[in-house]
Amino acid sequence: MYRPNKLMLKIIKLFYGVGGVLDEYKLQQIDRIGNNAFLILFSYTIISNLFISFVSSIDFQMVLSIFILTNILFSFIVVVGYIAISMNRLNLNNQETVTEKYSQKLNRIKKRALRRGTMMTIYFWCVERFLDWYFYRIPYSVGVLSFQGYLKALIAGSVLGVCLYIYWRSQLKKIPD
């Protein structure tokens, strides 16, 4: 059977959240899940592009904005949701650890969730500043001084960090020594 190179294996493990060794069974199941996710996304893309080609004559900028937002939401909710549910159902992303190292793993998960939450906060703040400037013509200096922008970004990052911590902690399983 085809075995991807080390870089590709690292990318697969990162994207699908697989910890530990990636054996043949896990790789086959991940291939199947990825192919199904691709078919879902491909079908959606064709249907949405056909729909947009008929509707785009109304208000092009508004339709484009709605189209982009819908694509992002569909990708995150449906496709990533399908991948997460399938990985959980097959127990492919469970991380088993001995009882002695459980607290170390929990600390690692806390730090990882904190890093991802911080990255999301920064990303959300930057995107918000760009969108304010692009759509509403709010100057960048005004956006930087806005307390609301910082608060929204902080809330978004905190929610993501907490959700990731809960998700990763649910994957961590204790095994007896």
Which descriptor suits the 3D outline? flat
Cα separation of the termini: 34 Å
Q: Give the oligomeric state of the chains in this entry, treating copies of one chain as homo and distinct chains as hetero.
A: single chain
Number of helices: 6
Q: H/E element string?
A: HHHEHHHE
The spatial strand order of the largest sheet comes to: 1-2
What can be said about this structure in brief?
The protein has 177 residues and is mostly helical.
Which key terms come to mind for this protein?
177 residues, two-stranded parallel sheet
Task: Describe the protein.
With 177 residues, the protein is mostly helical. 78% of the residues lie in helices and 5% in strands. It has six helices and two strands. The chain has helices spanning 6-16, 24-55, 60-89, 102-136, 140-144, 147-171; strands at residues 95-98, 172-175. A two-stranded parallel sheet has the order 1-2. Helix 2 packs antiparallel against helix 3 and helix 4 (102-136) runs antiparallel to helix 6. The longest helix is centred in the C-terminal third of the chain and has 35 residues, at 102-136. The radius of gyration is 20 Å and the shape is flat. The chain starts with 5 loop residues before the first helix and ends with a strand. The mean pLDDT is 88.
